[in-house]
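Field reference: sequence -> structure
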Amino acid sequence: MPKDMPKERNDYVMDSESATEMARLINQDRVMTEAMGGLFPERNGDLAGINTILDIGCGPGGWVLDVARAYPNKRVVGVDISNLMIEYARALAFSQRLDNAEFQVANVHTPMSFDDNTFDFINARFMVGFTPTKAWSAFLEECMRILKPGGIFRLTEGDVGSSTSASYTKLTMTMPLILKKLGFSFSPDGSSTGIAIAMRRLLRDASFTNIQKMAHALETAPWLPGYQMWVDNMKVTFLTARPAIVKLHIMPEDEYDSLYNQALMDMLSDDFYAIGYFLTMWGSKP
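Structure field:
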């Protein structure tokens, strides 16, 4: 595979070339698609009039491959800044004979290589994790450029939820603090990612029309399906966030490690329950 990693600034909080991060994203992708109710829940799976689809920040390609498999007559493209993720996704597409799926390395905070009016649908999930607040306007302008007239841009973002574990809850609260320190959060105090309160304004300011929304809740407990997959995802998330927590002086190393160990024990308790909240908004290009 070509080593076509872009040289521009990489704003990703986690190590985008890490195999650990790739494993986390594979898990997260499955959990989120299920929590959202499918690949296109707002359309009840109906892709009439949609033939070309782009996934922004596709990671190891799970969503793209699922769409390509479910809709073999659609062209599905995934872009990501990570060479490792794209090589893995390309290998999966080849091994699964999904000729309608393709992947490109790209920094989406710079102009993309696609022509104007290329795509009918653009999907993006969890952009807040690698998008400075000041970069949203240019990013959405670029998405508008490569969308066809009448095309749809769909954005899904999450925020902190709540749980029965004080240690787990405190750990999750460190995530929006990382974003705040790095200039990625719209929250005035870092108590949340703040992206939910900004999404409609961002889409409106970018001139998207017919803006609509759909909310999702991801609940998890030992007696619910998919619990172990969620636990594995959170374990890796907290571990990969640890260097940033320490470097940004959000919490001392020993305190974070103590919280992490206690949270792991709490998650194994039959009484543990957590819920997270996600919001999808989409709008059309005039």
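Note: Residues 1-10 have pLDDT under 50 and may be disordered.
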